[in-house]
Amino acid sequence: MQQLADNFWTFRGDFKVADVINLGTHMSLVRMANGRYLLLDSYELDDGERDALLSLTNGGRAIEAVLNVHPFHTLHCAAIHALLPDARLFGTCRHHRKAPDLPWEAEFIEDTATRDAFAEDLAFSVPEGVDFVCDDDSVHVASVLVRHRESGIVHVDDTINVLAAPGFLGKLLPQSKLKFHPQLSKALQKRPGAADDYARWARGLAEDWAGTPVVCAAHSSIRKLPRDGWRTEVLKALAAVETTLSKHRSEHG
Question: Residue 186's closest CA among 228, 229, 233, 133?
Answer without folding.
Answer: 133
